Give the backbone structure.
Amino acid sequence: MESNLLAQIYAGALARTGARTAVAADLGRRADYLAALDAGTVTVVGEHSGELLTFLNSGAQARKPEVTTDVADKSGPVRLSVTEELNRSLPEGLAVSDPADGTDMRPRVLLTEAAATLDNVRSVGEFAPRCGAVEAAVAPVPGVLQAAGPVRIAGCDFAATRLYPDVAALRKALLDGEIQAGILTGPPAMVPGATDGLTILADGDYAVRAENVLAVYRKGLLDDRQIRKLNYVAGELTTDGLAEMIRKVREGASASDVARAWLDEHAL
């Protein structure tokens, strides 16, 4: 659902530059649409920065979204942002737009409000030392782009993890005490009510790798004005705005109509 909506947004934005556009549905898994990009049969796809980096470079160390290159001295380490390391990992011939800084599509770690208060835990960093003694549950957030693999949380290795079919089952298991922590595979804004009675742990240090929406495109098929248009879209997208658009599509609205209204609202 998110993939199709982003495709409609990008297609609509590019059409307003005079480009002839069409949306290709059901491109398949990440490897399939990257192959389509490589072949030039598709020009642009929507992605998440961290998931794409994980898929392309499983050993990548970057976690933060902002440019954080820091050379302490000539022999010291260079720390890269997710965007920088992603650009280094892209296959030849592919490029990405600016990331949408207003989107935060990262998985979220959840505790019950009682447990968070009892242990005085409000962030993933504060919770991480306890992970080894905790059983956690993972539930998918429906409609968002597919994960490249299991959720990785720096400094946190749970004693065990269980997969739950949906966020409602995860919430019930947490509140009933069946498990001690929960992981949503995307932002709670996508599933209203899913975190009622729960505490969403803050993650200002990016123990979970940054996940910002961006466009991946085939080099040579877009001109400078069209690439700038993709970057303008990135400047306006937000997590809440994307969640609201996905809600409208779930309720039966056409993704193309929702995308068109959003582009009009943001003068894109």
Observations:
- The two ends are 22 Å apart (CA to CA).
- Strands lie at 44-48, 94-96, 108-112, 135-139, 160-163, 181-184, 198-200, 213-218.
